[in-house]
Specification:
Elements (H helix, E strand, L loop, with lengths): L3 H14 L5 E6 L8 H8 L5 E7 L2 E6 L3 E6 L4 E6 L11 H4 L7 E7 L17 H9 L12 E6 L5 E6 L7 H5 L11 H9 L6 H6 L9 H10 L13 H20 L40 E5 L2 E5 L12
Helix pairs in contact: 1-9, 8-9
This protein binds a DNA duplex (16 and 16 nucleotides) through loops.
Length: 327
Amino acid sequence: MPELPEVETVKRGLQKLLPGRIISGLSFDWDKSFPNARTDVEQFLIGAKILEVKRRAKVLLIELSSKYSLVIHLKMTGQLVFVGKERFGAGHPNDSLIGNLPDKSTRVIFYLSDYKYNASKSSVKKQRSVQNQERWQSFGETPEADQRGEVLFFNDQRKFGWVRLIPTLEVPNINFFKKVGPEPLSEDFTTADFATRLKRRSNTTIKAAILDQTVLAGIGNIYADEALFTARIHPVTKVKDVSAVKRNRLFLAIKAVLQLSIDKGGSSDRNYVNAEGGRGSYLGFAKVFRREGQACERCGHTIIKIRVAGRGTHICPHCQKPLKEKS
DNA sequence: CACTTGACCTGTCCGC
DNA sequence: TGCGGACAGGTCAAGT
């Protein structure tokens, strides 16, 4: 489930791969994955050059020379995977994933640069599965289409994610960006900011508050649990009952946990892969997430899974004690 | 306004 | 082996 570190990892990968390339074609098989694809694509997407890839909160922005941007939200199961010509050579490390794209989760295909004009003659031909050939055909392409050039796949098993084509100047005006909170890793984001923004949610639980994208951007279920464990705060604690000391501890924990995960290439829990189809290794460093039944590294007590704010929530019941009710 | 719940989806897993 | 239901979780709309 892509949260800030995963989206940041995809952004860094795409920023290395995409700028300078031209979008030469588009196909998609699920309208809701690209709701306005039929209106502006011919004029502002096809033929446009990719200038820069950016991230804000959990949203990817691909700026184009047409002064439009592709705005992309991966939600829970979205993937953006670049596949270059080299996949037809032998032994790409991520071949088991990228060698079979498009697969049944592929929703949108962006064809890049010299697609259709530079068919590789001498490349090693791989045996494609019947399913893969059928998928190409469902996108209106021949089974040999994947030998023609570079492609960017938008895959999304659960169809919650989306791609939109929006004038670059209007991107800050979409509802989500008008409401979304600060970037937690920005130096501008201070403990005072954190305290002020949390006040609006003083009556809810601390977990619900840090999952609220209008409080701060980019935290999802994995890093909420990890940060609360690091700060030794029980997730059901009311925001107003979190002391200043604990709040400041949480502020630092959020930054530390997100930064560590970026350094590890994000968390590959179920679906997440980076821009080249590779997985992240953060979960090997996670202290509580998906570790129920295992011993807490800090105190040895058994990590448990509970339900908070409608989400599966992982805690160490010894390190994270709920406040006692005052009567 | 604050807060909760349901909807959007598909794949996996668990109990019968 | 099949089958129903719970669950996974980011965001928005609609509800209290």
